[in-house]
Amino acid sequence: MKIYIKYMVSLRCKMVVKEELKKLGLHFVVVDLGEVEIIEDMTQSQHDALKAALLKSGLELMDDKRSVLIEKIKNVIIEMVHYSDELPKVNYSDYISDKLNYDYTYLSNLFSEVKGTTIQQYIILHKIERVKELILYEELNLTEISYLLQYSSVAHLSNQFKKVTGLTPTQFKSLKNKRRKLIEDL
Q1: pTM flag (> 0.85)
Q2: CA 86 to CA 144: how far, in whole Å?
Q3: How far apart are alpha carbons 126 and 163 in whole angstroms?
Q4: What percent of the chain has pLDDT over 70?
Q5: In the chain, what are the domain boundaries?
Q6: Residue 13: exposure state from Cβ atoms within 10 A (0-12, 13-18, ≥19)
């Protein structure tokens, strides 16, 4: 049985979900970002208990198919930008469409309708958060960061960074105290 969980965007979230499933005596096969496969069917009381426990941790059990698909789109983007070593070489639209087995136009229209922003803008927000993270780590220079995140040039990265944050990457680097946004707040 598959269950879907909203706001599940980090490894820590996975640990919380695993712990709550264990407490309820539910055995999981896979716990991925936003999606969990359990061996047995949940009783209504287990469902209600899991829902309540997840809410305490800032997570939410989802039942609505549209919400589930939106979360899947968000999780594919988060995984692609934050947790893979390099971005896919194909268009993001093809990548997302292939990962979710849906027509991209349908996914794009649904996402825009529900979230009030485009998938492309959502990707840009996450790429900029990733740039912030990489700048703060100081392991890569801007040229390497732009290459890693598939910007056509450092100038393109800098322009997009300034458009989103209001700062240049250099200004941001000098303001190390500026706090990054949490992934789930984007």
Answers
A1: no
A2: 12
A3: 14
A4: 94
A5: 2-63, 66-117, 122-185
A6: buried
